[in-house]
Structures are given as structure tokens and as C-alpha cells.
Specification:
Blueprint lengths: L1 H9 L2 H26 L11 H16 L9 H21 L14 H6 L8 H16 L5 H12 L2 H6 L3 H31 L3
Helix pairs in contact: 2-4, 3-4
Keywords: Hydrolase, Nuclease
GO molecular function: 3'-5'-RNA exonuclease activity
InterPro entries: Oligoribonuclease
């Protein structure tokens, strides 16, 4: 049934041309940017992306008015490409404003580079954490936030591997100390939650 529905959509000339337009955006913008972010030679620092963000903004603004450099085909594809470029231009201008020339991170100098040396070029880690959080909530609907956060930290920090490298006596001592301090940290966590809830927005 699904295949028949897809085939039916593909036979619609307008839909097919719009798909081609989306594919072109993916080939010219999305894929190169993903490669750029993963690059260990072209963009080794998050600030190296600024110039590419600016060029993308310039190109999108141009394509929103005249997409002929982006795609050359029927009026339907050109209109679709122009519309997508307009929306992408607005999105880039809004979401990347801090890394564009007038933004708070738009300046590139050695001091800022040193301060932001460990800043990742992507947010995959946090996205993965949210996905893992959702999965744990799915399988353990009654699990507390503290439990889920502790589980994620335990996995992400590779605590088991770290403990296994220790002498058994030291390992047991650290586990005992952690168990002893747990109630204190849980109490502080609850205090902090109350502070955040009562803090005026």
C-alpha cells in the first residue's frame, strides 16, 4: 500500500519536481556541510565554520531571488528552490546569528580560539543523550530523572572501564565512598530543583 502511494506521488509531475529540488539542496548544501563539520583538515575549530556560514547566508539570499545558479529546469523547480532558499536563509540568519560577522562569536582571534578550543562543531552528543533519555523513559516509565541522568553519566563517562583498571581495594573504596555520599548529593539535587522552580523567570 505504501509503495503504491509513493509511486502515485512520483507520477505527479509537481511533486516529482519538488523532490528533485529538495535533493539538489541536499547535494549542494546539506552533504557538503556534514563533511565540513566532520573534517579534520578544512575546519579543525568551530570558528573555522564562521566563514562558511557567512558564504551560505550570501548564497541563500541570492538563490532566494534567482535560483538559476542552484538549479536550472522547469518553472516549478525554480519556484520550489527559490522558496526553500528563502526559508533556509531566514533559518540560517536566525540560528547562526552568533557566528555571523555581527554576532557575539563572529570575531576570530587567538584568545577566543584558545577559550573555545574544546567546543564541539556539532551537537550530536547532546542529541544522542536526548535519544538515550527517551529510550530509558520508554522502557522504564517510572524511572526518576536522577536515575536516568546517573545511568547516562555512567555509560558516557565509561565508569565501568575506569573502575576495572583500578586495584580491587581502591575500586571498592571508591564505590563505598560514592554510596556514602549519594544521599548528600541527592539532597542537594532536590534543593536545586526547588530553587529553579521558585526562581522568577
Amino acid at each position: 500500500m505504501l509503495q503504491k502511494s509513493v509511486l502515485s506521488d512520483l507520477q505527479d509531475k509537481t511533486i516529482f519536481q519538488e523532490i528533485l529540488s529538495v535533493a539538489t539542496i541536499g547535494q549542494i548544501i546539506t552533504t557538503p556541510f556534514l563533511r565540513l563539520i566532520d573534517s579534520k583538515t578544512v575546519a579543525t575549530h568551530i570558528l573555522d565554520l564562521n566563514q562558511h556560514f557567512l558564504q551560505l547566508q550570501i548564497n541563500l539570499k541570492q538563490w532566494s531571488k534567482d535560483p538559476s545558479d542552484l538549479i536550472s529546469d522547469t518553472d516549478v523547480i525554480s519556484e520550489s528552490a527559490s522558496l526553500m532558499s528563502t526559508h533556509l536563509y531566514l533559518t540560517v540568519s536566525r540560528l547562526l546569528k552568533n557566528q555571523l560577522p555581527e554576532g557575539c562569536h563572529g570575531t576570530d582571534n587567538e584568545t577566543i580560539r584558545e577559550e573555545s578550543l574544546t567546543v564541539p562543531k556539532h551537537n550530536r552528543t547532546s542529541e544522542k543523550n536526548f535519544a538515550d533519555f527517551k529510550q530509558i523513559r520508554h522502557f522504564k516509565p517510572n524511572a526518576s530523572i536522577e536515575h536516568i541522568e546517573a545511568t547516562l553519566m555512567w555509560v558516557n563517562n565509561k565508569t565501568v572501564e575506569w573502575l576495572d583498571l583500578m586495584d580491587p581495594e581502591i575500586k571498592n573504596a571508591k564505590i563505598t565512598l560514592a554510596m556514602k555520599r549519594a544521599p548528600e548529593f541527592i539532597s542537594k539535587w532536590h534543593e536545586r530543583k526547588i530553587q529553579l522552580k521558585t526562581k522568577p523567570s
